[in-house]
Amino acid sequence: QSVLTQPPSVSAAPGQKVTISCSGSSSNIGNNYVSWYQHLPGTAPKLLIYDNNRRPSGIPDRFSGSKSGTSVTLAITGLQTGDEGDYYCATWDSSLSGGVFGGGTRLTVL
Amino acid sequence: HVTLRESGPALVKPSQTLTLTCTFSGFSLSTSGMSVTWIRQPPGKALEWLARIDWDDDKYYIASLKTRLTISKDTSNNQVVLTMTNMDPVDTATYYCARMRLIATTYFDYWGPGTLVTVSS
Prior knowledge:
The structure holds two protein chains of two kinds. Chain A is mainly β.
């Protein structure tokens, strides 16, 4: 049971938009920055979003993040087949004094 | 150019101690705001944060494994070592090390390729 809650799966057609939610509490998302990671098969996880809504250099603006209270959302527009994989939210939990991940969301591009 | 790479045994027996080494380049763990963390992923399961060591030698561990984990750093050789005692088959996982950025934020910006550790007799 992960500290952060994500939907197990989402799907959409190529070119469409999908959103992935991540909910937590005041000890984690509510008072700390959140990051998002893309984990494609056979590769290491890759940073997509940091500080809730900032993109590292090289990440296309098709990927965006937002935060409201104790929840965050990752949006992906213009879906491509290469986007298929697992997506994780993560943050620091001040009560646990440890890092926490969501359970991961499997994205399928139909 | 930042890189990290994990090394260690691919197979350990139950009850043994696992020692993993993260060798990195492109940054110094003596620089303020830098940290190296360990994360694992059991087959078919989610990522799980394990431990972190900071530039000032502060250390943090996941509560459920705190008694079994030890993280340390060798700044001069750019290495971070994680030891996990009393290994069990449920500890079978791909283990990743990652650079963690601190100072008013927390995120993992560079990851190693991971190393698969199987616990079996």
